[in-house]
Amino acid sequence: MKTNPGRFFEDFRLGETIRHATPRTVTTGDVALYTALYGPRFAVQSSDAFAKAIGHPASPLDDLLTFHVVFGKTVPDVSLNALANLGYAEGGFHRPVYPGETLSTVSEVIGLKESSNRQTGVVYVRSTGSDASGQTVLSYCRWVLVRKRDPEAKIAEEHVPQLAKVVNPADLAHALPPLDPAAYDNALAGSPHRFADYAVGEKIDHVDGMTVEEAEHQIATRLFQNTAKVHFDAVATKETKFGKRLIYGGHVISLARALSFNGLANAFAIGGINAGRHVAPLFAGDTVYAWSEVLETAELPGRSDIGALRLRTVATKNQSCGAYPDKQGEGYDPSVILDLDYWAFIPR
């Protein structure tokens, strides 16, 4: 067989390393299309002049554009036959990526757990994105629910990995060049609020909403070379639980991050992803809103220029966030689609 039907759960082996195909050179064209799709307005990623003034050699890529490109490489080998991407942990952005850099991805299978119905199983992978010189720019763990080809197939070895609940932001702060806080122009950045202005427990309604269009999410997912069938094949998805195509979960993350500008405009870089869960599916025609809670603030050793905010950003569909819809006992408010816990760097 010359075509790739994708791996099924029983095809994975604990400890195996998968070198993913198609390295990707990211360009200013990718940046422009990403901006057109999501509308992020963070000044450091929008303006070469602003970025250079504070210490970057040029405007870096939006961290989530890097994430999606690295993630997209893994899909043909990990989640082509997935039913759902379940969660994230131990994410770290280790180096800024600038236009012209070439990214490639390698994944290690770190866990396997068959579902009780024997129709599916959960695959845990640690994926690492590297630049052309082999330096790590991004690493993260994710786990995904994958179909079995044969429900009766026996699984050789199972293991559920123990993953850290929180990454240390101090281990990731080296990714950013020394920043000149005096050169960081609050007016141009769009907000006067810096590190000291945020308090643990504070909740921020990001107010704005974005309605997702069918063509828009298709273009976005293709931009990242994500080939998962559930996002593209309207005929095949008629036979699924929902009967239609799902929006790529990363699309929701980028929408929520873009919306968070209104209230977190100076939280200009993502340091790490502590945890993430796609709570419910999103479909074309739904409108996304978001709110964030400050879970923790952290001073960084040796960095008097920036601090870190541990943020929990919750995205909803078709319900604004003035009431901060959240967990309800063991479950969630029906409007919640994303629950993301991450570190963001912000000037002091």
TrEMBL record:
<keyword id="KW-0456">Lyase</keyword>
<dbReference type="InterPro" id="IPR016790">
    <property type="entry name" value="Thiol_ester_hydratase_Rv0216"/>
</dbReference>
<dbReference type="Pfam" id="PF19315">
    <property type="entry name" value="MC_hydratase"/>
</dbReference>
<dbReference type="InterPro" id="IPR048274">
    <property type="entry name" value="MC_hydratase"/>
</dbReference>
<dbReference type="GO" id="GO:0016829">
    <property type="term" value="F:lyase activity"/>
</dbReference>
<dbReference type="InterPro" id="IPR052342">
    <property type="entry name" value="MCH/BMMD"/>
</dbReference>
<protein>
    <submittedName>
        <fullName>Mesaconyl-CoA hydratase</fullName>
        <ecNumber>4.2.1.-</ecNumber>
    </submittedName>
</protein>
<dbReference type="InterPro" id="IPR029069">
    <property type="entry name" value="HotDog_dom_sf"/>
</dbReference>
